[in-house]
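One chain given next:
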Amino acid sequence: VQLVESGGGLVEPGGSLRLSCAASGFTFSNYAMRWYRQAPGQERGLVAHISSTGDYTLYGTSVKGRFTISRDNAKNTVYLQMNSLQPKDTAAYYCYTNTNVPVWGQGTQVTVSS
């Protein structure tokens, strides 16, 4: 079971990034997926959640209206579209699922700075 994130990088305030998380080793379409983030010195917090079918989504208060989670079950991939990025969004972003055991990706760094 593996989750591999990609798409992070350095972006200026107001810019956009799209993160991807490629899943393998389990039946992706059976499981809800989440994105978390962790800034230095802070606890890891939930960014967004998507149900197994993609019909239901949930967002953290600080990203609601700016970020969009989506998934492509044919490609075993979950995405996080991040718009109107702000310096406070700077963090390592992690993909997560629970297939009876918690599974985390290795993380991808997002830095928002001018």
